[in-house]
Backbone:
């Protein structure tokens, strides 16, 4: 009787707590979004007032500039695939006990991380032809970005592999699995889950670094913005369009990355 | 919740700030007034337009003859005479004919010689001349857009076949590039920003070119862009008269001052480090001669340069 009345009394209170909780969450989100809208709105408003913004230019040239988004996405995605392949090979090599393989992978990482990405882009586009290797602008950009990010991601992958509990490997070996199979079936799948957030970060950075290849006349977002803006003497508008495009791209990507991370985290429970 | 309410003051404060800004710029009475940054610049400039505060920096495009001229080592040259070459099978001309396409380098930002349309295509005087050359060769045309200094530096690595980019023939360039006869001539023009208050070359507080110091931006039009944006490092700019006119027409706050300082012969160039190209050079030179004679170049020049015929040797200098 006593217990029944307690639960009977407690339920509405619990319900009430749940409702206030929900309300508070909704109100929090509302305020959060309102802050964004207000800040972005006032920023644009301030620009509009002080910047002598020409809507005609935006209407006429934004399609041309935004077409560069396709090139930017292709550039980033293909470079990322290349970087992932290089990083997988690099990471496994960095953990190898063979001094030649390990040395080569270490040199790759050190060399690429020790020189500016812009020099690497120029080197592949302008300097390699002197050695008889002539690459068109887009492949040159993809190789430069992929090569560069491959080195950074090598270290991420290596850390990910090392973060897999040693017991996992030992257990697999005890079952008589050959070394390669241990790596492929036991260690790497777990390592991938660990490195996903870091890789996602790198991809966001890659989208933005892809702007550097505008220097070798790849007609991506920034190149188009600079060309149109300089020619029409509307630099502010042109750069604004390109910047917004990069921003939207990273927002969209971050949204999917968050979902992927949540999915991958399920196994940790 | 209370904290959040207090936080919300922030965007509102920003809005008020922005509104205040609109109030101050509204005082000038003209909504299309210059960006506010230029107000400061105006107040700093001497009111009598004496130009005492004008810096001696002169803006020019990278790897241009204007830079050479400022630095005192411009050596204009004439194209070497071109003789009919012996027939060979490995000439660049044969490659182009086989490919059915000629690749031409162009600057996407050099109005009215070459500039972009919103659909991404190129238009302009150089573009029309290049297209006409391709037509008369009987091949299609494709444009590449490398940086200007990459074109004048040679070593094109066969990324493009020829430059139809208003390139001045100079002694230095002749070392690495082969030139056809000039297809037109432009005068080099000095321009100053409107805010400087200068109206003639005599107003400049320094002599050109001796007293000036060159500062470079990737391409000529970037100088006008920089002045337009309200940057104040320099007020003087040298480029071809056509580019200066183009910038003025586009609404850039610059004016042309004085007579042209020198005239430039502009020609089609081919990279000497590339494959043999004697036949291609001869053929293009012949086509340009033809275009001079039949009036094609004159009518293109009049179309793009406000009725001016720039295809005859410039009188300047």
Residues:
């Amino acid at each position: 009787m006593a217990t029944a009345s307690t639960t009977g009394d407690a339920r509405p209170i619990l319900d009430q707590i749940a409702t206030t909780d929900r309300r508070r969450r909704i109100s929090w989100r509302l305020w959060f979004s309102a802050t964004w809208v207000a800040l972005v709105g006032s920023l644009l408003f301030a620009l509009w007032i002080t910047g002598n913004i020409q809507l005609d230019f935006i209407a006429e040239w934004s399609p041309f500039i935004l077409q560069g988004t396709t090139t930017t996405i292709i550039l980033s995605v293909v470079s990322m695939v290349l970087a992932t392949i290089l990083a997988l090979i690099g990471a496994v090599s960095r953990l190898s006990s063979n001094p030649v393989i390990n040395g080569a992978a270490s040199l790759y990482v050190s060399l690429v991380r020790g020189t500016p990405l812009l020099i690497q882009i120029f080197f592949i586009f302008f300097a390699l032809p002197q050695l008889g290797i002539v690459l068109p602008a887009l492949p040159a950009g993809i190789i430069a970005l992929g090569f560069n990010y491959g080195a950074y991601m090598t270290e991420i992958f290596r850390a990910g592999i090392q973060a897999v509990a040693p017991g996992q490997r030992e257990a697999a070996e005890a079952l008589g699995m050959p070394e390669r199979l241990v790596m492929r079936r036991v260690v790497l799948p777990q390592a991938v889950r660990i490195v996903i957030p870091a890789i996602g970060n790198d991809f966001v950075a890659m989208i933005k670094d892809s702007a550097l290849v505008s220097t070798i006349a790849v007609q991506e977002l920034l190149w188009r913005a600079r060309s149109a803006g300089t020619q029409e003497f509307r630099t502010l508008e042109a750069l604004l369009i390109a910047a917004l495009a990069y921003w939207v791209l990273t927002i969209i990507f971050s949204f999917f990355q968050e979902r992927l991370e949540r999915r991958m985290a399920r196994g940790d429970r | 919740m209370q904290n959040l309410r207090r936080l919300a003051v922030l965007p509102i404060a920003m809005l008020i700030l922005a509104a205040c800004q609109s109030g101050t710029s509204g005082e000038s009475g003209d909504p299309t007034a210059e960006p506010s940054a230029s107000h400061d610049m105006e107040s700093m400039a001497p009111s009598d337009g004496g130009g005492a505060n004008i810096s001696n920096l002169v803006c020019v495009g990278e790897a241009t003859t204007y830079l050479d001229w400022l630095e005192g080592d411009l050596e204009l040259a004439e194209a070497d005479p071109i003789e009919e070459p012996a027939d060979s099978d490995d000439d660049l001309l044969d490659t182009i004919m086989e490919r059915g396409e000629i690749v031409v380098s162009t600057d996407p930002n050099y109005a009215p010689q070459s500039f972009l349309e919103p659909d991404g295509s190129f238009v302009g005087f150089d573009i029309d001349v290049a297209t006409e050359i391709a037509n008369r060769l009987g091949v299609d045309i494709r444009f590449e857009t490398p940086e200007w200094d990459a074109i004048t530096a040679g070593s094109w690595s066969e990324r493009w076949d020829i430059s139809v980019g208003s390139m001045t023939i100079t002694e230095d360039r002749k070392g690495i590039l082969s030139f056809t006869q000039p297809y037109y001539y432009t005068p080099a023009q000095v321009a100053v920003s409107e805010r400087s208050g200068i109206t003639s070359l005599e107003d400049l507080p320094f002599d050109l070119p001796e007293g000036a110091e060159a500062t470079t931006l990737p391409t000529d039009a970037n100088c006008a862009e920089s002045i337009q944006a309200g940057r104040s490092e320099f007020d003087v700019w040298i480029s071809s008269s056509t580019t200066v006119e183009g910038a003025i027409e586009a609404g850039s706050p610059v004016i042309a001052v004085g007579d042209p300082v020198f005239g430039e012969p502009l020609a089609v160039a081919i990279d000497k480090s590339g494959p043999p190209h004697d036949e291609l050079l001869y053929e293009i030179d012949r086509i340009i001669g033809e275009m001079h004679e039949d009036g094609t170049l004159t009518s293109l020049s009049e179309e793009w340069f406000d009725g001016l015929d720039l295809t005859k040797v410039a009188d300047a200098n």
About this structure: Residues 1-50 of chain A form one domain.
